[in-house]
Amino acid sequence: MYAPPGVKTDATFAIPTTMRAWVLGDPGELALTEKPVPVPRAAEVLVRIDAVAICATDLEVIAAGPPALVQGGLPFNKNWTPGHEYMGTIAALGPGVDEFAIGERVTVEIHAGCGQCKRCRMGMYTSCLNYGLNYGDLDKGHRANGFTTDGGFAEYAINNINTLIKIADSMSDAEATLVVTAGTAMYGLTELGGLVAGESVVVIGPGPIGLLGVAVAKALGASPVILTGTRDARLGKGRQLGADHVVNVSREPAVAAVRRLNGGKGVDYVLECSGAADAINEAGRMLNRGGKICLAAFPHAPVPVDVAHLVRNNIYVYGIRGEGRSATHRAEAFMRRKQFDATQIHTHTFPFHELPEALRYARERVEDAIKVVVQTRSVAGAEKPAAAAR
Ligand SMILES: [Zn+2]
Ligand SMILES: [Zn+2]
Predict the structure, then answer these.
(1) Helix (H, G, I), strand (E, B), or coil: what is residue 352?
(2) Spans in the chain with pLDDT lower than 70
(3) Which ligand is nearest to the CA of 114?
(4) d(Cα 55, Cα 48) in Å, to the nearest integer?
(5) DSSP 8-state assignment for residue 223
(6) pLDDT tens digits for 153-178?
(7) N or C: which terminal CB in the chain sees fewer CB atoms within 10 Å?
(8) Other C-beta atoms lying within 10 Å of the C-beta of residue 253
(9) Is 111 helix (H, G, I), strand (E, B) or coil?
(10) What is the whole-number distance in angstroms between the Cα of residue 85 and the centre of ligand 1?
(11) How many CB atoms lie within 10 A of CB 277?
(12) Quick check: 180 and 85 in contact, CB under 8 A?
């Protein structure tokens, strides 16, 4: 029986002592293993993972390592579990935790900052200055599950209470895994100023963050919201999520199209989610003077930037990392009120033991996969665990 000292459990919610967990061996190699169920400390809970979505960053981490940083280095052959976009049910409470109850359904943010550095104090916990300093003699309290600490491709995970968002019973497990993606888009729009009602917004790149960026911008009242990309099917999803206009840039030059659709003028904000090499220059030319760019994706090699254009036009450039400033809570509030249907981007579901196939679908975009979700609890009643009936 799982009954660590000081940890609150519930007889109605039995927890085994070991769990199934995928671990990363050499680059690209995942193996399904048994691990001890981890033990929550103060301000932490044990989450039974019910579903986990696959992110492009998971694919990078598994294949190449960064941005994962495990025990100060590459994540390979360290008995480490990737996966970061998960949701589940509170299974046990660390000492002193009374903010959550066993049986409550939650989704998670990735980053628990150290809470003591300058950036954490500003709400920028995704840029914690003690990032990854949580091994050996170092224990700054920082966790980024699926990056620096064990993540969600397992049956259980430890989460700091600050990373938990309660979800409504009406939200499915799969939809709940998308909250953090919407939260990342929300963080980008937050950093751009947040007050985008009535302002014009372009989203470049209809990947998961871009598509939910359209939805969040629209929910925040932005008008018009214009989405640019190269694939008509993805742009169609963007329309369903609220884009006023979509532009297929393989048929029309992006900058000219955006200006045409915005009454001949530049727009106020660009959320760059494509990572294309020339995206920052295109974004700069889409904007009016004093406009703002948020970079939420990046090219893998350095790119030339027309700095003079940015300076002469007083254009602000922001970079965001992850889902800071509690943006995920605001995204969940929109989703709870059904202001957009994030499940539009959920295309495929796999059971836990088929994770490698799920990753292949995401990597190769099999059947135009956008978000692939792994249902960790692949039982009929997984959407509503019996123990949550309190
Ligand atoms: Zn992600
Ligand atoms: Zn910190």
Answers:
(1) helix
(2) 378-390
(3) 2
(4) 20
(5) S
(6) 999 999 999 999 999 999 999 999 99
(7) N
(8) 11
(9) strand
(10) 6
(11) 14
(12) yes
